[in-house]
Amino acid sequence: MGRTVAVLCVPPAEDVVGWARLAASRHLACRLRDHPAVDAVVVATPDVKPWEGLQVTVVVDPPTGWQFGAELARIAEEQEIERLVYFSAGSGVLLGDDELDRLVEAVPCEPPYAVLNNFYSTDFGVIAPPHGQVLEPLLRDNPLGFRLWEADYRCYELPRTVGSQFDLDTPGELQLLACHPGLTADLSAAVEDIPTGAARALLMTLTEAGEELVLVGRVGGVTLRRLEADAACRVRLISEERGMEAEGRAARGEVRSVLGLYAEGASPGKLVEAVCSLGDVVVWDTRVLMAHRGLWPSAGERFAADLLLPEGVHDAFLKEFVSACARADVPMILGGHTLVSGGLLLAVELAWRGGADRPKRYLPLALPQEAERKTDGF
Q1: Domain boundaries, the chain
Q2: What confidence tens digit (pLDDT) does each residue in 26-37 have?
Q3: Closest alpha carbon to 197 in 306, 331, 328, 329
């Protein structure tokens, strides 16, 4: 297979999401270090201390700042990597052993090839070989699949599962992760102060045939199909602006949201009131609304909004929006793309886990497959 090296890109832990990412990345680094198909593990980070004693190679971010593609290309060249197993911080946290094996050991064809968790918005994957001229122009990992395809790599995608789609991007995902009974001790400690009331309300709604989930944001078909198959509740869906980051529409100010257009003629409070009137619990990828309005506040403000803390938000529109969400009569979980993709997949699994006393969704039985009838052309 050639020299296979895992590279984890881990920014400094400066907030609750950062500490959770660090805990998840440390655990993943140890799993990769011990994997027989991985020759070495490299961690790109500005902070060496959390990695001491883990028997991994630490590459300190340059003083000029981190530029994703250029730094990944530099590491690939310096480490003489022939097969790069890349993970962004917080991705792969729920990968099962079989899924990790499938990724690390994948050799689907002769190089050049890539095996990605999501071709349209990549968080992790295998790249063989990691050509510097291909990687260098990338400012972030989301469009990695597009870039590799344009460079004539054969691009494959892992099955869309909780493990391949769940990532730690916002406090929205942390609220669901905090309900997971199988976390490592470090990750449990990182999320122990995260509120879970709205998340647990979502889990109950998913098992109730008479209730309705309102789902807003960049929701894909995989999530919707899983909900159709396994959620007992009804689902009211407003899906829009998938790929806005990977395709550069957010950066170019081209995002257009139905709810954003509604908010141009109504106050943030009226917008929240209208959405909450549609169901019993709301899960909202608010980055689409922010991008529609040309907003991209600091991570601290975005995360304060996700935690329904208006005092941590400065923009007037967003502050009023968050205040309305905090006052809402129905539980609301706010976050980003992962919340309405891997987050919802995780929620469905958690909703039914160990729920022997929970009502099962009523479903019609499928008719036994009839033997094929021979006809004269009809």
Answers
A1: 4-165, 171-352
A2: 999 999 999 999
A3: 331
Tens digit of each residue's pLDDT (9 = 90 or more) over 141-186: 999 999 999 999 999 999 999 999 999 999 999 999 999 999 999 9
Q: Are 50 and 217 in contact (CB under 8 A)?
A: no
Q: Between 268-276 and 316-327, two packed helices, what is the crossing angle to 10 degrees?
A: 30
Residue with tokens 């050049």: 112
Is the confidence at residue 375, as pLDDT, over 80?
no
Regarding beta strands 332-335 and 57-60, do their DSSP bridges make them parallel or antiparallel, or are they unpaired? unpaired
Q: Using CA atoms, how far apart are residues 202 and 332, in angstroms rounded to an integer?
A: 9
Per-residue pLDDT tens over the stretch 53-76: 999 999 997 766 678 999 999 999
Residue 249, Cβ density class (10 Å: 0-12 exposed, 13-18 middle, ≥19 buried): middle
Question: Which pLDDT tens digit goes with each residue over 198-225?
Answer: 999 999 999 999 999 999 999 999 999 9
- The class (CATH top level) of 4-165 is alpha beta
